[in-house]
Give the backbone structure.
Amino acid sequence: MTACFRSPLAHGQRRILTLVFPRLSTDRIARRRWGMDWRSSRHHDHPPIVFAGRHADRMCLTVLDAAAERLNLKLGQGVSEARAIFPELDVMDEDDDADAALLMALSDWCDRYTPLVTLEGRNGLSLDITGCADYGGGEQVLLGNASRRLRQMGFDVKGTLASLPGVWSDSASAADGTCGGALFRSSDIRAFPEISQRHSSRLGITASDHGSLIRGL
């Protein structure tokens, strides 16, 4: 667990990094099928992956991958209507337990930045980084570091910085490590410790993956 020194600060001076995983469910399936480097490998021509659940007595789309969004499928759309648009649609049943377990593993992984990590809904995390960011180059470097590493592990992630937990901003960083127009270099990743073996095993990272992840491939 990351150790850091916190001096007493007023409430308004807290700094919270919120990470949201908008495609946690579909990323979980893609990583299981093609490995955590699936975003950088040749798996972009697969049929769209969506998740569906029963709401108001009908099966509706609840999570869409990027390919499904490019087809203009919508959250809440009926499965039968979506299949009429794209018959080869890969429809998966919701699995809240699997998503919750993965989000918990991600929260454990994030304690490299701060021991104060809390779950935000079904697909988000809040990291209290008050007093923790300076040793690694500042909070924006920390944000870029986390975004880059998580994307390398196969996750679509967006992050924002605020003074309160759970606050989301339209200017939040994209998963490629951009925030407010600033691009974070792969060298920023080296500002923080190696991933522990405990976290690696829970996230499906092998020993051979370990070094390449840090090298910013």
In short: Strands lie at 16-20, 49-55, 58-64, 90-93, 117-120, 124-128, 158-162, 178-179, 182-183. The chain has two domains: 11-23+97-214, 26-94.
